[in-house]
Write a structure and sequence with these properties.
single chain, 186 residues, alpha/beta, seven-stranded mixed beta sheet, 19% strand, globular
Length: 186
């Protein structure tokens, strides 16, 4: 089975996401997909080149990083499932409104034409504020599945939520069976 593994710009979570990517290669072939932000942005959590190198080494191929590269995912039926981890508030908004203007959102749109699962691992500071509406919309759409998520720092960031990235493998398996892993909220 082949899994697309898309990464958006919640850079602070990358240290928890890359080990899961490594673990998934034990069971699946992975195709990495980067948002333009991930592909081009250096941050205090590492350089873009470091992230590209790490994903390339783990997956055995360089990340897809353009809309043109992502578009054939659906027509060629390249993926059995697509994971978006971390999935930022920006990406949640675009997905909930069917906007495909990034490599990640184009990958999702293209992949969904085959009625196959998209697994979302939320990481956003406004999950319990502005992004709540988009999370709700996606919970009601077919073929979207959520990695269980909860508040990461209720005292200092009361509206922030992040997925339990360690549960990505179980969420994929459930999604491939058409089931949402439970509980969704931690």
């Amino acid at each position: 089975m082949t899994i697309g593994f898309a990464m958006c710009g919640s850079f602070c979570t990358f240290s928890r996401v890359f080990p899961v990517m490594e673990r998934l290669t034990e069971e699946f072939a992975l195709i990495p997909i980067f948002s333009q932000t991930v592909y081009a942005t250096d941050s205090r959590f590492g350089t873009a080149q470091e992230h590209i190198r790490r994903a390339s080494e783990i997956c055995g191929r360089t990340p897809i990083f353009t809309i043109a590269q992502a578009e054939p995912i659906g027509p060629k039926q390249l993926l059995d499932a697509l994971v978006i981890a971390p999935c930022t508030g920006n990406t949640l908004a675009k997905l909930s409104h069917s906007i495909a203007d990034t490599p990640v959102t184009m990958a999702a749109k293209s992949h969904l034409r085959n009625s196959r699962p998209v697994i979302l691992a939320v990481s956003t500071n406004d999950a319990l504020a502005g992004a709540a509406e988009n999370i709700g919309r996606l919970l009601g759409k077919k073929h979207y599945y959520f990695v269980p998520f909860g508040q990461d720092d209720p005292e200092k960031k009361p509206t922030s939520m992040v997925a339990d990235f360690a549960q990505i493998p179980q969420t994929i398996k459930a999604a491939l069976e058409g089931r949402q892993i439970q509980p969704i909220l931690l």
